[in-house]
Amino acid sequence: MFMKKLEIIFIGVVLVALLFLGNNYYSSYSFKNSDIPDSYKQRILNKEQEVLQHMQKNYGYAYKFPLIITDKFKGRLYGLTSFENGEIKIYLNKKVMQESMDYMLDSVIAHEYAHALLFKQGYLHTKDDGHSKLWQQTCIKLGGIDCQQYVDQQEVIMAKMPFQ
Ligand SMILES: [Zn+2]
Fold first, then answer.
1. 32 Cα–ligand 1 center, Å
2. Distance from the alpha carbon of residue 2 to the mean position of ligand 1, in angstroms
3. Which residues make Cβ contacts (< 8 Å) with residue 133, sequence separation at least 6?
4. Core-most of 11, 23, 52, 139, by most CB within 10 Å?
5. Distance, CA 132 to ligand 1 centroid (Å)?
6. pLDDT tens-digit map of 79-89
């Protein structure tokens, strides 16, 4: 009787483990092979709304930039902002999203939005790499948590996107 009970518990544990593994496999499979999960999209949209609310409060307008999630990034950049013929776009790297979603939300979206907003305001970064004092202040005003001026990334692109 005692063995029977242990056996049942064991089978239960194995089943739970299998379900967990299966679910894990399913979510990383579906992540790689299709669009990003709706829950991620929702979190990104919510964060963008937050950034826009900060913009409204601090600048008196809320300008929404195209936010494009793509897996065509080369390397490990989290995101980048491009300015081409007056068109400003923000790209987020889908490939690092699953492992770095919190960083993406807390830091990257406001970081890139600050670049985009400065482009919009006519600062075209001809004399710096984009991470000026003004950029930092903008990033903070947009609610960015990690507005480091000294980032070792070149993610302000003033030309055609390298992967298009
Ligand atoms: Zn930057």
1. 26
2. 63
3. 149
4. 139
5. 9
6. 999 988 889 99
